[in-house]
Amino acid sequence: KMTQQMRDLQLAQARKPPGPSSPNAAKRLYRNLSGKFRVNYTSFDEGSLVGRGEKEKLRKSYLFQSNAALFEAVELQDLDRVQEMLKHYSPEELDLNTPNSEGLLPLDIAIMTNNAPIARALLQAGAKESPHFVSLESRSLHLSTLVREAEQRVNELMAQVVNEAPNADCSEKEKQLKAWEWRFRLYKRMKAGFEHARVPDAPSSVHLSVASSSSLQVTFWEPLSINSAVVTKYKVEWSCSPTFSPLLGEAVIDKLKDLHFTIQGLVSGTAYHIRVSAYNMKGWGPPQASVPPFAIPSNWREYDGRAPRRRGQAEALDHLLGQVKTVHQHCICHEPCKNQPQSRKHSVSKSLKHLFHPGSKFLKTLKRGLYLTAIFYKDDNILVTHEDQIPVVEIDDTYSCLLMQDFLWLTKVSCMWDEILWLRQCVTVSQSSCSCILQTRFKMLLAISQMQGLLGIQDLGQVFFEPIKDKQGNILIVTLKEVKTNQTFESVRWVPICKLQTSRKSVSSPEEPTALDTLLISVQDKLAYHQRSSHALSAGLYLGYLKLCSAVDQIRVLVPEQLPNILCHVKIRSNPNISREEWEWLQKMAGVEEPVPTEPEADRSQNPLFQELQVAIKELMTLVNIPLQEAKDFRLYSQEVLDFGDQVSFLLLLPPSDDVCTAPGQNNPYTPRSGFLTLPLQIFELGEER
């Protein structure tokens, strides 16, 4: 018998624990384990067990029979319990794809009882159908055997109960009879579910897009029919012929968390037809052709053969810096440093261990001048000196006004923290000119070296986009650095920010706070800015809005507070690639009198990019508080697509040329809503690079 063969196969698997002796025993095991599952996590959280080893031992004892508990939860159609076990245990711990003694997997039971919610939960967790059902006939035969054997067992137990006198054995057999009657009904329901099922309908929709010059992305949705069995996998096929003869390739997708597939290794410029079909326990359903019916792998750069903007730029800059270093290597300014030993690369733990000793030269208070402070933070804690002070060093005590050019120069220096000593030596040569600018920048380098030496750390982090100024003539430049190690350090304390704020005794009035007081008051905002400025966008094509405003000494750019390293933007779609055909259409758009499409036209309604841009422009105009009718005067930047790696790309939306940059004193009739700020253009460029 096929059932007996599957049972023998299970006995051969040494790692599989024996199942319950009867369906009734399995029910009791399920109930017991369900209660233990509910108690287990609470006890772990509350620390009621003494040792970690005991916790793990107890956990393993539960896992030993967790597979049987999962089967019972599926059979009893207990969706909550199935989801709980899938949430707290891995598929390996649950033996999710190991058949039971009847040759069935949890997913088999779910789909044959047509329990779609449980089947989808199992599929999301990686469940598969039993590999023993190689054909419809084998599945039907196996179910018939299970029903027949269960019915035979029910008849045997019923005869024994009727013929035997009432006693303890009879009572136990009555319990077994009820359990087998329940299992008999389950198997009949599974058999009826299989017999009444039909192959699935075609996927409700199949969308085809160009992912690159050698790949296409296929996105599909499950069939709309609710009467067929649960779909357990999909098949994607592709061909150069609309008849799919010959077939160039196919891929079966059984991981159904995300219903999309990228076809790689295609030939650029060749048209490919795509179709997708669904599968359930009755077999493959009819295929659904994609929309559009074919696509050609390509990229917008193929339109005019343009090379990537940044190709080789980083290498060229490194080479140029090496040449500059070589020229300066034999300068007289480097002679005193030749005999100095090379600076050691301190580990974070060693450098922070001896961070702030009593002889350090960190300042406690500020007097009129220019200063540098470094903020190191971890979670909600901040690193302070042994005197509970944020580390501050002096740059220049005679400098009462910071020129924006000097500050922006320092932000660029922050990209070369490891080269400060070399930069100092190079600037020393030029001091003979007595340039005030060079003198100030040399003092900045000295202060940076002092901070690095006292901390024992080269990387001081990112410079905050604007210095802190007070009415006493103090100017404080702030650097921010997140420490992600979980180590503890001697002679150094991580102090909660809130405690530091409440314990510090201010020497200034609330009306005129000093720069240090202002820093402590606003430190959470600065840390939030630092964290947000390192966030990355998810993969996709975005529409960005470029808006500048100029001042006497700088140009600033409008950015969202939540992502200050990116222009104001909305997402157009998840596919970042612009195909050659789409770019040709955009070039034609750039030449028409109506720059930005706001109303659909018959010849454009079939263009997916046109429809996506319409939605994105409306959303973006609402975001930056500009009436939609004003968008008719805006234009899409048609010179290039801004690529940020392989996964993120931007199309730029530009105001009319006279309004791209607001001049000093010029009124902007449309002020963005809250949630935006303006950054110096150079700061924005550095943040974009990071």
Overall description:
This protein is of the alpha+beta class and 690 residues long. It has four domains: 57-196, Serine Threonine Protein Phosphatase 5, Tetratricopeptide repeat; 207-298, Immunoglobulins (Immunoglobulin-like, Sandwich); 369-534, Nucleoside Triphosphate Pyrophosphohydrolase (Alpha-Beta Complex), CATH 3.90.79; 540-592 and 602-689, no CATH class. The protein has 22 helices and 24 strands. Strands 9, 10, 11, 12, 13, 14 and 15 form a seven-stranded mixed sheet that branches. Strands 3, 4, 6, 7 and 8 form a five-stranded antiparallel sheet that branches. Strands 16, 19, 20, 21 and 22 form a five-stranded mixed sheet that branches. The longest helix is centred in the N-terminal third of the chain and has 29 residues, at 168-196. The protein starts with a helix and ends with a helix.
Q: Which stretches are poorly predicted, pLDDT < 50 over at least 5 residues?
A: 1-50, 334-351, 353-359
Helicity, as a percent range: 25-40%
**In CATH's first tier, which class of the largest domain applies?**
Alpha Beta
Percentage of residues in DSSP E strands = 15-25%
**In the CATH classification, which architecture of the largest domain applies?**
Alpha-Beta Complex
What fold name goes in the CATH topology slot of the largest domain? Nucleoside Triphosphate Pyrophosphohydrolase
Q: Average pLDDT across residues? A: 80
| Overall 3D shape | extended
Q: With helices defined by DSSP (H or I, 4 residues minimum), what is the helix count? A: 22
Number of strands: 24
Roughly how many Å apart are the termini? 66 Å
What would you report as the Rg, rounded to the nearest angstrom? Answer: 35 Å
| Overall SS class | alpha+beta
Number of separate structural domains: 4
Largest sheet: 7 strands, mixed
GO biological process, one term: establishment of mitotic spindle orientation
InterPro entries: ANKFN1, Ankyrin_rpt-contain_sf, FN3_dom, FN3_sf, Ig-like_fold
Organism: Hippolais icterina
Protein name: ANKF1 protein
